[in-house]
Amino acid sequence: MLLGSCSQKPAMTVCTLLAGGLRSPGLCAPTRWAPSPPGLPRIPSRPRPQLRPLLLLLLLLLPRSVLSAVFTVGVLGPWACDPIFASARPDLAARLAASRLNHAAALEGGPRFEVALLPEPCRTPGSLGAVSSALTRVSGLVGPVNPAACRPAELLAQEAGVALVPWGCPGTRAAGTTAPVVTPAADALYALLRAFRWAHVALVTAPQDLWVEAGRALSTALRARGLPVALVTSMEPSDLSGAREALRRVQDGPRVRGRLLCRMRGRGSVVQGAEDRVPSRVSVSAAVIMVMHSVLLGGEEQRCLLEAAEELGLADGSLVFLPFDTLHYALSPGPDALAVLANNSQLRKAHDAVLTLTRHCPQGGSVRDSLRRAQEHRELPPDLNLQQVSPLFGTIYDSVFLLAGGLARARAAAGGGWVSGAAVARHIRDARVPGFCGALGGAEEPSFVLLDTDATGDRLFSTYVLDPTQGFFHSAGTPVHFPKGGRGPGPDPSCWFDPDTICNGGVEPSVVFIGFLLVVGMGLAGAFLAHYCRHRLLHIQMVSGPNKIILTLDDITFLHPHGGNSRKVAQGSRTSLAARSTSDIRSIHSQLPDYTNIGLYEIRELRHENVALYLGLFLAGEAGGPAAPGEGVLAVVSEHCARGSLQDLLAQRDIKLDWMFKSSLLLDLIKVCVWEASAALRVPTPPSPTSDQLWTAPELLRDPVLERRGTLAGDVFSLGIIMQEVVCRSAPYAMLELTPEEVVKRVQSPPPLCRPSVSIDQAPMECIQLMKRCWAEQPELRPSMDRTFELFKSINKGRKMNIIDSMLRMLEQYSSNLEDLIRERTEELELEKQKTDRLLTQMLPPSVAEALKMGTPVEPEYFEEVTLYFSDIVGFTTISAMSEPIEVVDLLNDLYTLFDAIIGSHDVYKVETIGDAYMVASGLPQRNGHRHAAEIANMALDILSAVGTFRMRHMPEVPVRIRIGLHSGPCVAGVVGLTMPRYCLFGDTVNTASRMESTGLPYRIHVNKSTVQILSALNEGFLTEVRGRTELKGKGAEETYWLVGRRGFNKPIPKPPDLQPGASNHGISLHEIPPDRRQKLEKARPGQFSGK
Q1: Euclidean distance between CA atoms 315 and 803, whole angstroms
Q2: 780-817, pLDDT tens digit by residue?
Q3: Alpha-carbon distance values, 366 to 371, 393, 436, 544, 606 (Å)
Q4: How many helices and strands in the chain, by DSSP H and E?
Q5: Does the predicted model carry a pTM greater than 0.70?
Q6: Contact 324, 297 (CB under 8 A)
Q7: HSE (side-chain half, CA atoms, 13 Å) at 840
Q8: 680: how many CB neighbours lie within 10 A of its CB?
């Protein structure tokens, strides 16, 4: 028989004796004796040796019921730091279970159960400490709730021999002294996702440690089963903005990869191996698991998340939202669970995208019904509000009962002897006990039910019944309803749920491989076909058409057939700008290879302002044919330079060229070289005469094959020689006075090193140094074309050396800046005009303002019937005496800003404000029939309602009361004055409306009979009261009325103050004035404390 903790030495001795002298360390370690029954002497904690025989004799004579051991069950959870967990009333749940168990144990002679409510901190480090402390005090432990403490709790419980029932751990397995109370949450969720084939999921957790750890544990468990959990994110902060950010991270989540999950089978065990990641198609999450308190239990984070999903359009059926915490308790179908959503239509609409998987109670049973029955049997306090008890009550009750059932079966299997914590945990798996809302345990695990709402969203329906252990998923009669009647998220490939299959987004590996081969084959075939077609097209274009390159005698007209110069122009690294432009056809007496045709065609497509356009090749006659004019030659045809070439310019000594012109020419030349180098075009050429090799680099002279092909470094050397030509205005190496053959030979075979000589007076030293770097013997020491361009630009310190280009650029920049300046000034003028127009229309009616802007006179206008509004502040003089000038200004500004906001929603026109007086008219300047009285009356009611809650900033305790007077009649309106013109009203109607205001009372709307008659004719439900005959200055006594409201007007109206006999109707009472302000008033007005 399993006892309480045996940590005390006397209890250990008694355990050993009752066991027949056989001590079980695994048993006695977690057990503890109960306190002595009433009426018996208390056994001292450390009895003296001479009392031990008496103690043993006393224990042998005690009845069996007294010898019953105490099994202490600890209920560990965040009861003190989480109010929603605390609403499960774990103390009442555990006490109710222990009471029923003790009643049954008294009949059967079993152990007596005691419960201990143990607090678990909400922070993870504190949770681990709470587990360690709890295991030393109990025989069995229900908990912990924080998943981060689950694995340490299992190890510590196994070491201590304490049976552990962790109902809050998502992926806990039965092993050692651990026995989950129901199917783990990860197994249930995986079974649901497999049934709907939703593989791509995202987890959103609340920011508290408990939920963050739960999300991590759940994602680890789902990934271990092969599901691609794309994202695990936390709502921080836990409000609507944090929910939006979390959902945006779900939308923009990471890409999902495929996986290969290997299983090794051996002796009935299944071991999951490592994952091999392979690319997959981009997938979007189909389900969002909300790891937080359910909104049905008052979870604010889930409420914000669902409202944000509705706001972002994610609750339209494209995503399904699965609550995590409902897997741990039983929610019942019906309208009760959705009562918290009744007053929030947006939340009710968003909840339509939620599928709730929860524990299933048998037909006709529910946690709420079981609570009601327990209260009726007086097992629960009669004042307990069952509506506020969380369904988690039943889970705690069931955990205690399962622990007791495992203990009973373990004792029965041991013949009533000692049992260990591992034996209790092992028998919990097969124990069958009466749960809180139905049978629990045994061979059949309690199934789950999938709840969903219908289109109206006012109740939960059972749609499917799910049993993860048996693997069945049956309809409960009501289909799942997705938002807007849609079909919900589409199914993912079934390979995600097959652990022996490589999942590539639903595509078989063989199909992927064959598709890859097909794509590669088609790409190679397309490339070959494109290459062939391009070559054929270029060949056709070379010999025919308007853009042909191969030219014949039919295409060329010779102006001087016998006077042409046959000097050759070489290509590549041997190109020189010294080619004579006086000849349009330059003959080449050797034939080019066939493969140069494509390169020549590409040269023809190149365009640059400083390069003569290449037109094509001239072919005439055949090899060995007769030497007729124009026949037997291969020549290059280029554009004719009418103004001459660079060589012609340099040769004309009468043209003076200073450094500015030379540097401008060289800069353009280097630009052309940079452009040609970027084209990376090399055309093989035949061997050249010695005179054409003066520009050739030494390494090219030594290698004829490399000379025909050319190199970029060789081009830099040629550029350096050309720079010497431009600077010195002479032929290459002219200052050495050597023949071309001698120069070429010395350059080809140093030492000594043969290079041109440039004096310092011909160019800046920086330019001479740059030329010498271009002449370097080693090709790798020469600068690149781009570097040469940068270095040459730095010689002139960034100044633009092309005079014409600089002039044109300055003109263009000035024109562009002038256009931008005119556009900017025009826009500023338009903005200022709009501001002026807006200010003018605020001071005068729009029609009057337009007339004044046009310069036309504004004639006074007669209006047959209008309604005027006057109001002022009661006791304004007293308030002014008690206030500073700036405080008076702030008061009037705040009050009339409030009034201005109100009149914007009515068809009225604000005439003016003078001091505390506020004047508004309706029916002018735009006539509105008889609506003017109703518009003014509605505006007056709105203003009176707003004044009831208005407070002065500097004296909030002093009320601000206004008097309002209304009158209807004819008047004349017109603009008065030229300086600061005003739109003024004239007539007896204005005076009468002012008298109605001055004879009124605080918080009252004083209305003349003419206005009442118009309101009655409109029949819009305005409510008036007869005030009686009132003396109006200059008018005599007239019948007046109070406007007290309107049918359908629900805004609060302040109650008028009671008038004391002899008191003034136009001031503030003495008791309403604060003491400090009263002193200031006494100084300003001795002996007088109220008045207008």
Answers
A1: 68
A2: 888 988 888 888 888 876 555 555 665 566 577 778 78
A3: 9, 12, 8, 93, 87
A4: 34, 28
A5: no
A6: no
A7: 15
A8: 7
